[in-house]
beta-N-acetylhexosaminidase (Luteimonas kalidii), 779 residues
Amino acid sequence: MKPIRRTWRLALTLSCCTLLAACGREPEPAPVPPVAEATARPALIPAPASLQSREGSFRFDRGTHLVADGEAARRVAVSFAGLVATTHGVTPALAGADAAPAITFAIDASLPADAPEAYVLEVAPQGVRVAAADERGLFYGAVTLWQLLSSAQGEAVRIPALRIEDAPRFGWRGLMLDSARHFQSVEQIKQLLDAMAWHKLNVFHWHLTDDQGWRIEIPQYPKLMDVAACRIPAGEAGTDPVSGQTRPYCGYYTQDQIRDIVAYAAQRHITVVPEFDMPGHVQAVVAAYPEYGSLGDTPAVSNEWGVHQYLFNVDEPTFAFIEDVLDEIVELFPAPYIHIGGDEAVKDQWEQSERVQARMAELGIADETALQSWFVKRLETYLEGKDRRLLGWDEILDGGLPPQATVMSWRGTEGGIAAARAGHDVVMTPAESLYLDYLQTGSPNEPPGRPAQVTLQTVYDFEPVPAVLTPAQRNHILGVQANLWTEHLRTWPRMQHALFPRVAALAESAWSPAGRKDYADFLTRLPAQLARYRAFGIAYAQTPFEVLADVEAGDGDASTVTLENPLGYAIRYTTDGSDPDADSPLYEAPLQAPLPVEVRAAAFAGTTALAPASRHAFDAARLRVRTDEQMATCPDTGRLLLRLEDDGPPDGERAIFNVTIFRPCWLWAGAELDGIASAKVRLGRLPYYFQLAHDEPARRFEPAQSPHGELLLRTGGCEGEPVASLPLPEAPGADGFIELDLPLPDAGADAGRTDLCLIATGDTRPTMWVLDRVELVPR
Ligand code: ACM
């Protein structure tokens, strides 16, 4: 077993003391529950299109009844009661029309029917009325009312009188979940659908097939479940430590489970759009049915990440297979759209395959790009025959596309712009703004993922409608979607960390009018959303609410400590070892403190701490240590920095490392080497589990001089002279790490600040050494 190198503080349950102003006092026995005031400015996310305040307020308590006329209104009232029960512990009862005080839900035929999902909510001292022309709108009105109530805690709540008229900006308010790379249980997906509904999101794009796994039960093709649904994870994680046997990672959703999820989503006004990714991302299918591949070989279901080479061939039996599967998919998913993927289909196998080349010649198709275009058109025609619309990633534009096809723009917005100009409908989901596997802060407590940051504000600020489009072209932008790819997200808590609270920012971009968006205002509403997450047991990310600290040494034992909250909330701190509270000093400027110093700090919204206090202890020894997260990558190798997990133990927590896979090296800019005798370096090791396709030539490593390579320490940057070197062992110790003590030459008067670079030589395949920490040891 490897030691857990650092704790990842996800899903910490906040204690009463960090959350409630009344902390520390015993509650008085109270026969009548106190009435909580919902804030004068309601904490609604997404912000409604229009909100007018009125005089007075409405008191909600155990005596408040729900009145609903007709089946649709009753269903909405029941959903509303469920939401209220979760946050307030009270289930309001349905009553007859003359009950008072009451919340009335009404399908109102006098409201305009051409504004789907719109609603009107009126809160008056005597009662509340939610009205809409259709059930979807009524549901969203109910969600807004529940959010008004849940802006305050407690059984009895007073909400301000107001009138809200609201309708979504976009009809497509999507979230994609990758269930191929890592799998989620039906219950977990339902938890996500619940949360999507009360964020007013309405499309669940379900990525169900990929190189690493097939996840849909298709009884006609049993090897999809027996072979394609299982992979042997790379490295130690693929072996059972007790039996020594391989330990496959398997899973697929049965058709009954899929029907259950689709129905559950529909009850929440969410459409499930399935994705069967092709002609690339099909290695798992080819592992099961090599006859549908291009080269006739039988690969394993992939246990690597990145861009793979396997493509379907274009023979008729392969189309028969694809159409059989699409028939089942169309039966299972009533969505108007079927996603056929189309992304990252590098064409090497089609170029190499004599069969594919012969077929291209037979069809008179000039090149492989045109062949993919032909492939997509054929699927489009097939789906149109089933009364479904084809949707694909923006690569489907290459070589031409039938006008009815819809494009999901992920490689920036350019594909979406080109598609809208060509008359296609578009969903905007650019990686740099809306990919949730990118990390949201620079905290060392982030889980594995892509450290290039997609912050809460990045998601919030994304504008789905490019200004360069004409008004007619803008009408093609159906909406916006965030995507959760799960290569590096092995567990459901980590997936929730990646999703929340960024989904709240997505919701506002997707629903609220552009003119109503205001990030600073959104941050004032976010704490109420966090309370809702806690009520629903959602393990939202704590990292945006942490306080990060940096220290700079001064003369003697002087130091300067800088504090930062990633979202810019107010910081309160202590230096006396106690946890900060609402009376602790407010951080306004870097702290001058003699070493050693312990700073405890928390981010606050008003008097409420947003997360448990962060503790930062600094002393002279700590200043001579850097971890991988605190170090830069070498200049020129910044491509694809990843935050990767160790491969063992198979279960439980593993060590996490920041590494650039194209040329792993770690740079400590301005390290002080004066008086330093050696560098104590701790390294871990990862399986090299990547497919880089055409980027493979960019992978670099320094040749090894000894059988297992050596650890080099350079000064003057990563291209500088090696000043120390030690041979590496064949394998790390039983704990997964090694520690090497590299003696440094006594540079005498020349010692001083330098850019110190650490590199392990030797091929990064099949395993690569990765830096955990380096400590400079004084003479
Ligand atoms: C994608 O990220 N390959 C759509």
About this structure: The mean pLDDT is 93.
